[in-house]
TrEMBL record, chain B:
Pfam families in the cross-refs: Prefoldin (PF02996)
Record family assignment: Belongs to the prefoldin subunit alpha family.
InterPro entries, A to Z: PFD_alpha_archaea, Prefoldin, Prefoldin_subunit_alpha
This protein's name: Prefoldin subunit 5
Length: 108, 172
């Protein structure tokens, strides 16, 4: 009962969870550094020297962003599940009505 | 490599909820109460998850092996004197001669495209830390796998029993 939309959401959620974890690991390592340590960021094929404070800020911002996205996707997933459930209930009710009508016809 | 250690937590989160459901129905009695179709679906689901867990475990082992070889390379590097002649790989088949600069500073890939300069000492420590982190992740995942496997096996056995019952009933 997994619609393609819901599967995409689950994959997205998994991707975000992995990214969040990776960024948190990076932040932990950055926190262990002395203030004058050298930090480099890989931009394409180039290693660019970065300021430790800037790297920290960037990683923190990404963590915030990913957490917000995760929350949003969780809410969407909950929503979809709720919709699916109510549709399923409606379907069951219709089926029951159909069955009772058919039973009524058969008796008559 | 960092993300491999994290995948465990992603899986663990998804599986904990399921595990609780499974734990409540892992009693043989509950399994017996389920219909054949339900049982089949449950077993297929459990088998799928066992395979996923196996894959993750293999990934962790690979990552650990790479980390161990990195730690070994670091150790070797620390033994080499500065100015030592060496061959530097430019591609998989092209090496150029060079001399070893001071081996006290190393660049560590910490993930998401960030590299940090560390001393040889800290570099070795980094490797050790990651290796132990992966080891503990491996053990935790292994536990989850063992439990999931037992659920899948139980479901399989109950399913076989029911199918045999059904066949006996229809043939008699």
């Amino acid at each position: 009962m997994i619609s393609p939309k819901s599967r995409k959401n689950h994959q997205l959620r998994k991707k975000y969870t992995i990214q969040l974890g990776e960024n948190e690991l990076v932040l932990k390592e950055l926190d262990l550094l002395e203030d004058d340590a050298n930090v480099y960021k890989l931009i394409g094929p180039v290693l660019v020297k970065q300021d430790l404070a800037e790297a920290n800020a960037n990683v923190r911002k990404r963590i915030e962003y990913i957490s917000a996205e995760l929350k949003r996707i969780d809410a969407t997933l909950q929503d979809n599940e709720g919709q699916q459930n109510s549709k399923r209930e409606a379907m069951m009710k219709l089926q029951q009505r159909l069955q009772s009508i058919q039973a009524g016809k058969a008796k008559a | 490599m960092g993300h491999l250690a994290v995948r465990r937590s992603a899986f663990a989160a998804e599986f904990t909820a399921e595990r609780e459901r499974m734990a409540s129905s892992s009693a043989r009695g509950e399994l017996e109460k389920m219909g054949i179709d339900q049982l089949k679906a449950l077993k297929e689901q459990a088998d799928l998850e066992v395979n996923l867990l196996q894959d993750s475990l293999n990934n962790i082992r690979t990552a650990n092996a790479r980390l161990e070889s990195a730690a070994g390379a670091l150790n070797d590097l620390s033994l080499r004197p500065q100015g030592k002649k060496m061959l530097v790989p430019l591609t998989a088949s092209l090496y150029v001669p060079g001399t070893l600069d001071e081996a006290d500073k190393v660049l560590v890939d910490i993930g998401t495209g960030y590299f940090i300069e560390k001393t040889m000492e800290d570099g070795k420590d980094y490797c050790q830390r990651k290796i132990s982190l992966l080891k503990s992740n491996y053990e935790q995942l292994f536990e989850v796998l063992a439990k999931k496997k037992s659920v899948a096996d139980e479901a399989g056995m109950v399913l076989q029993g029911k199918v045999r019952q059904l066949q006996a009933a229809t043939t008699s």
